[in-house]
What we know:
Blueprint: E1 2-5, E2 10-11, E3 23-29, H1 34-45, E4 52-58, H2 65-68, H3 70-75, E5 80-84, H4 90-99, E6 105-110, E7 114-115, H5 119-125, E8 132-135, E9 138-140, E10 148-150, E11 158-160, E12 171-173, H6 174-179, H7 188-196, E13 202-205, E14 210-213, H8 220-232
Parallel strand pairs: 3-4, 3-6, 4-5, 8-13, 9-14
Antiparallel strand pairs: 1-2, 1-5, 6-12, 7-14, 8-12, 10-11
Amino acid sequence: xxxxxxxxxxxxxxxxxxxxxxxxxxxxxxxxxxxxxxxxxxxxxxxxxxxxxxxxxxxxxxxxxxxxxxxxxxxxxxxxxxxxxxxxxxxxxxxxxxxxxxxxxxxxxxxxxxxxxxxxxxxxxxxxxxxxxxxxxxxxxxxxxxxxxxxxxxxxxxxxxxxxxxxxxxxxxxxxxxxxxxxxxxxxxxxxxxxxxxxxxxxxxxxxxxxxxxxxxxxxxxxxxxxxxxxxx
Length: 233
């Protein structure tokens, strides 16, 4: 794994002496179309709350993101860290992002989604009485069926996305993420939320400030739904 911290050019796991940001945003990338990655990053820098760092975690993509993203690095070099390692999956990538974060709070953004401009400030407003929150989303679908995903307890049963815990809507105190690892499994986000509830105050909130695109054919949910359809046919 190598790390590029653009505030001090090249480092290997050592943070610079910048002021500790309020929020670390972890964005994992694996061969995602660059136009979608750019949309996600632009939504971060369009936030009405500006005290954050963005940690891009390249999970062994064949795309040359560090070249494609150079304009962002030059414009926001004090806020962006770029990490790259061999492909290991979203859960392990997020865990590595947590270890390289430098903040009071941590949240996640999927590379094919985006934040509304008030997402970070809306999440912060919910933290007075919680250690970790998960929120509902503004979900973009191609058809009604896309609102439903396989239940973690029974993959043949589908539940509405509003009932789910989603990786990218998690927002919480750094200690929660530092003390718990995401597991390499389906519904790792829900498993993390449930594990956190044993020692921390967790809350599901209705914000809809996260825009969730459900039409990505390469997502874990889409692949699982496809496999279930094949098995049932």
